[in-house]
């Protein structure tokens, strides 16, 4: 899997980043391992329910663009019918996401019955704990785009890829899909500027009510 070239921006050396990244990685490994163990009954039950609900594999993998343009395989529970990607083109005219880069619909016809619940409860994202354990992702960081979305980014928007992608981030706890794409980028770049262990912990704590109340989840 080849990587995507990404324009770099200059940044001043920050001596605290080395220790922060060490603690961040330690937290990622600990939390992802603990999460996979504690949530194993939920993971197994979800696998079975998806298979019973609709034809196709219960797990879905997709190429995503990570830090500095590195491509990786991102894992999710399948929440759509198996022909979802081929049907995407016919739905682009009804894209509800402001900004035109991302595609979002509140009533996406490609989502399965079980998939709608998985998305609202964010259960579909749980397999990404494996990506965190592998080091492709972090618990906290910008959401990784697919290559087709990345190819539409401006140079300004590409700067968000200089931070390791994560499962949750500032805009995930500030409205999620209800936020326009330019606002999402602004929050991602703000995170890159202020990131620290305390900021990560704040975002993780704010993720709990965001998931429970399913704000902007669809």
From TrEMBL:
Domain Bacterial sugar transferase: 24-212
Domain of life where this protein originates: Bacteria
Pfam families xref list: Bac_transf
Positions of transmembrane segments: 29-50
Keywords (A to Z) from UniProt: Membrane, Transferase, Transmembrane, Transmembrane helix
Molecular function (Gene Ontology), one example: phosphotransferase activity, for other substituted phosphate groups
Localization, UniProt: Membrane
A single cellular component GO annotation: membrane
UniProt key word Transmembrane: yes
Region forming the signal peptide: none
Membrane topology summary: Multi-pass membrane protein
Sequence similarity: Belongs to the bacterial sugar transferase family.
Name the record gives this protein: Sugar transferase
Annotated source species: Halioglobus maricola
């Amino acid at each position: 899997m080849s990587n995507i070239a990404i324009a770099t921006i200059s940044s001043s050396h920050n001596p605290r980043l080395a220790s922060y990244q060490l603690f961040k990685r330690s937290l990622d490994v600990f939390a992802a391992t603990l999460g996979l163990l504690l949530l194993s009954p939920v993971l197994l039950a979800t696998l079975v329910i998806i298979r019973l609900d609709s034809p196709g594999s219960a797990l879905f993998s997709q190429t995503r663009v990570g830090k500095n343009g590195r491509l990786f395989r991102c894992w999710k529970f399948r929440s759509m019918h198996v022909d979802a990607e081929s049907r995407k083109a016919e739905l682009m005219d009804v894209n509800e996401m402001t900004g035109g880069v991302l595609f979002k619909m509140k009533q996406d016809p490609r989502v399965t019955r079980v998939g709608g619940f998985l998305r609202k409860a964010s259960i579909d994202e749980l397999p990404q704990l494996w990506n965190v354990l592998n080091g492709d992702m972090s618990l906290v960081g910008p959401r990784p785009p697919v290559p087709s979305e990345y190819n539409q980014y401006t140079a300004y928007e590409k700067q968000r890829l200089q931070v390791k992608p994560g499962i949750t981030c500032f805009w995930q706890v500030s409205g999620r899909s209800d936020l326009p794409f330019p606002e999402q980028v602004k929050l991602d770049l703000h995170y890159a500027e202020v990131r620290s262990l305390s900021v990560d912990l704040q975002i993780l704590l704010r993720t709990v009510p965001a998931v429970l109340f399913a704000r902007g989840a669809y």
